[in-house]
Amino acid sequence: MDECAQTSAEFILLFGGIFVVVLLVIYMYNNYMNDLGGEINSKEVNEFNSQLKTLKNYFK
Known about the structure:
Blueprint: H1 2-58
């Protein structure tokens, strides 16, 4: 009986540890995607501004 309880407790600890690691990975991935989105938007805005400046030269 004691071995079954110990095995169950070890499985609970194992799955709990895996669950914590998965939550940390999801949190880090979410932060990474948010930062990446900001960089993409910033890059697109800079390119758009550059193209507007180029067009402005044609209308002087």
